[in-house]
Every structure is written in C-alpha cells, then in structure tokens.
Amino acid sequence: MGISRDSMHKRRATGGKKKAWRKKRKYELGRQPANTKLSSNKTVRRIRVRGGNVKWRALRLDTGNFSWGSEAVTRKTRLLDVVYNASNNELVRTQTLVKSAIVQVDAAPFKQWYLQHYGVDVGRKKKATTKKETAEEGEGAATATEETKKSNHVQRKIEKRQKDRQLDPHIEEQFGSGRLLACISSRPGQCGRADGYILEGKELEFYMKKLQRKKGKAGAGA
What residue spans carry the region label Disordered (predicted)? Predict the structure, then answer.
C-alpha cells in the first residue's frame, strides 16, 4: 500500500467513501520516520528526493558537533545517552535521536580546550584526602613541568583571559562527572548528523529540574 499523503483515500465529511478516480502520484508519497538510534555502528543512507535533491537519512549515530555558546567553541564529541524528550518518553527509552532531544555528551574535548585556553583543569575534585601524598606530589611535579613548557607570551595570554573567565557552577559540576547536558539542534533523519549545543543558564536549570522530577517519579514508582 505505501504511505500516501493524498486525500483520495479519506472518507467524505458525511461518512461516505470516495471512488479513486486516478492513480497515486509520486509527489503524494510519504516516507517512514528515520528513528535514528544511538549506536556506535554509524549508518547513514542517501535518499533521492523531489527535484533531484539529496537527503541523508541517519539510522545510527554516536557522534556530533556540539557548540558551547558562551565560550564560542565547537568540538566533535561522543553522544553517551538520551535523557529527556519533551514530546515522547518512548523516544528516551529507545534512545532515539531527534531534533530538540536532550542528550548527555562526553565532556573530554571541552575540558581539554578549557585547560588549553584558560590553563584551568575544570571539574577536578578539590579535596583528594583519600589519595596518598606521594601521588599528589607526583601530580604536582607533572603540572610544574607543564607550566615550564609554556612560554612567557602564552602565560601572559592565559592570565589576561583569566580576568574575564566565568563558569556556570552547574556546568562545572557536570565537568566533574565527565558528561555535559546538550540539546540536538539538527535533524538527524534529514541531514544525517546529530549536531547541537551545550545547555547553559536558564535552559540548563529548566531541564535539570525536569530530570530531577523524572528521577523522583521513578524512585516513587519503585
């Protein structure tokens, strides 16, 4: 039968059936949704569409380009988990990547950039009482050697950047866990990519509340 977007197969307002007076047309076709899954086995299909144009239908993805708006930096990173979807919980359960889905991405590329740009290893635990002093001394020596590698010019540059440095406490907390909350802004089933942006400010607070509420409900249900 196929998916058809015409109105010939629909009943009349009175409830009577219509006679099909012509065959189906190519421009009335419909295609099934991509339902892009989060998987390491990346699969993208090329689809020829109307006008000879091309769409890229992503069936399985696990990486994407995510931008950190306040720092004006974009990095390719791994998608780790789908945690929230405003339209449908089923899409969270089945780990489906769609536009506006809230996902967790690997923080490592951004952490690395932050260290290089500001000279701050963000997300490190401040109190490491359980670790041995020898290990701490070893780390101190390693950081000292790193600092010696930097030229005076680079150190001055980093010091200048430090003056204007501001980091959202919620984001700093996420860096500690190694996962950042992000929103997908591309359409994986249309362009074959899962790109988006890191959540910040009011938007981040909103989704954190939503996730907490969801977690609370799950705990109450159990």
Answer: 1-39, 126-171
Whether the pTM exceeds 0.85: the reply is no
Per DSSP, the residues of 107-155 read -HHHHHHHHHHHS--TT--S---SS-HHHHHHHHHHHHHHHHHS-HHHH
Taking a C-beta distance cutoff of 8 angstroms, is the pair 102, 83 a contact? yes
Measure the CA–CA gap between 132 and 139, rounded to whole angstroms: 11
Question: 71 near 122, Cβ under 8 Å?
Answer: no
pLDDT confidence band for 126 (50 / 70 / 90): low
CATH topology for 34-122+168-222?
Answer: 3.10.290
Q: State the average pLDDT for the chain.
A: 86
Where along the chain do its domains lie? Answer: 34-122+168-222, 131-166
pLDDT at 67: 95
Around 123, how many Cα atoms within 13 Å sit in the side-chain half-sphere? 20
Q: How confident is the model at residue 41 (pLDDT cuts 50, 70, 90)?
A: very high
Q: What pLDDT is stored for residue 134 in this prediction?
A: 47
Question: What DSSP state is assigned to residue 197?
Answer: E
Residues forming a β-bridge with 67 = 74, 197
Q: How far is CA 182 from each of CA 1, 148, 217, rounded to the nearest angstrom?
A: 39, 36, 22
